[in-house]
Amino acid sequence: MSTSSTNSEKEAQIAQRMLDLRVREQDIEESFVRSGGHGGQNVNKTSTCVMLMHRPTGLQVKCQTTRHQGLNRLQARRMLLDKIEAQRKQAIDAERARIEKNRRAKRPRSRGAKERILANKAHRSVKKQNRGRVGMD
């Protein structure tokens, strides 16, 4: 992923982040297309827009913020890593929420809650007993 117009320190940061997230360069499919919008004749003639796809997750990113392909490549990788990180964080949070919900459901009831439930049951049983037929005396 070496580019001539980008800072090597930024490239090293992206490479380190890819290592931390266990994203391999082989898993990223990179393609270049012509940009649209501002940029004049440059965007009409050169393919400065960068499209990245992470094959294992299916996430796609398209970056055409600058007129330079090298800078767009760097920004696209940064955006892709942000998306991958957010997706993993969301999965971890969902699992944590599921575990917490299960833990709350299994928690024993408090003494006050038990007493309220039993009082409500007693009240309902009295109501049901009073529903009997009215006898002819």
What's the arrangement of secondary structure elements?
Elements: H1 8-21, E1 28-33, H2 41-45, E2 49-54, E3 59-63, H3 69-106, H4 111-129
Antiparallel strand pairs: 1-2, 2-3
Which characteristics define this entry?
Double Stranded RNA Binding Domain, 137 residues, three-stranded antiparallel beta sheet, alpha+beta, 55% helix
Biggest sheet: strand arrangement = 1-2-3
CATH first level of the domain at 8-102: Alpha Beta
Largest sheet geometry:
3 strands, antiparallel
Oligomer: single chain
Q: Low-confidence segments, ≥5 residues, pLDDT <50? A: none
First-residue to last-residue Cα separation = 99 Å
Evaluate the radius of gyration.
31 Å
Strand content: 5-15%
CATH fold group of the domain at 8-102 = Double Stranded RNA Binding Domain
Query: In CATH terms, what is the architecture of the domain at 8-102?
Result: 2-Layer Sandwich
DSSP helical segment count: 4
The chain-level mean pLDDT equals 88
Question: Which descriptor suits the 3D outline?
Answer: elongated
Structural class: alpha+beta
- The tally of strands reads 3
Q: SSE order in H/E notation?
A: HEHEEHH
What report would you give on this structure?
The chain has 137 residues and is an alpha+beta fold. It has a domain at 8-102: Double Stranded RNA Binding Domain. It has helices at 8-21, 41-45, 69-106, 111-129; strands spanning 28-33, 49-54, 59-63. A three-stranded antiparallel beta sheet has the order 1-2-3, covered by helices on one side. Strand 2 (49-54) and strand 3 form a beta hairpin. The longest helix is centred in the middle third of the chain and has 38 residues, at 69-106.
